[in-house]
Specification:
356 residues, elongated, 11 helices, 7-stranded mixed β-sheet, alpha+beta
Length: 356
Amino acid sequence: QTNPAQAQSLQRELAGALGGETIPMRRALLVGEEVLKQNANSRSLLEKAPYDFEQMRKSYWQSMETYKAEFAQKNQEALQKEKEPVQKEEPRPSNENTASLPFERASDATPAPVRQDNVPKLSPEHQATRETLEKVRDRGKMAGWNHSADLLDHYLKGCGEPVNLDKDWVRQHPPVKEGEAKSQKHFEEWLVGQGPKDNSFGKIWDHLPKGDGAVTIKGMYWDGAGDSSSWQELGDKGNSLGGLSVRGMGDLKLERKGNEVIVTGTINQYAEDKYDFEKNNKNHEWLPQGALGGDFTMTRQQITDMEKVGGAKAFKITTDSWTKDLEGRLKLDDSGNIIGSQFEWKEVPASDKVRR
């Protein structure tokens, strides 16, 4: 506590020397953590501590066992591939507006272009954090986690160029599916007069025709985000898609016939995120990924501090859009109140989307 920088350096050395053994420490008093109150005694510190050391230990060892198994499997697959003839592929032209990274292609056979790192000279503490992330990146490559390793490498190189990820790969991630569903739910809630008021569009009663007729609402959008606790799972998607949200945007047509309103619309959805490690109220959260780089105490705050002095640079992640048709009906009473509803979402195939 009197010399946190030296203590942290010693912890890193011990972590490497022990080869995976945990380091005894007082629960919640990790080096670099803020003292909650200067006059607080040890008991109150432990009671208010945001860390659960036992859960930390279990999470780490579960992740490491998974990593070992996957690493062994990838090594076996690599040996098999060495025996197969290498097929040469034509290089794909790069996109000027986004970073050219291997995972943007259907095949990873073409290597990414080499970039010069835009990193200034760092303090020993920040350099140690950066080196830990470099080891995490390299271990990820060895485990076959190419997407997350390339994203982390892009972050460390500090160019800040946006990256476009394959939408089909991204949509397989459960939190992204949850984000899709939440975005659609926001549309439905707005259409029945529930949910938060949108400052741009007001409430649905501001748009409903008073009698028979139709109105089109242009450019309505709603965002949705799932549970993105990516640290709970050491895997390629979990480490790549930490906080992606899904935005749905499109035009809605409301056609009233008596006490019934027909709802139709075409909604384009896409995922987006800012790639960094900052997280509101959780910057002192311990990251098990650091263990892959030999640091058992690395927190979000350490990485964020390293980024702020130029050791890395955040960037935007996006996907191409996919399209869904919305069809629905609203049932009104004689006073115009909504008393019933039903909605159906249908995904538009890519070929049909092109014809439109």
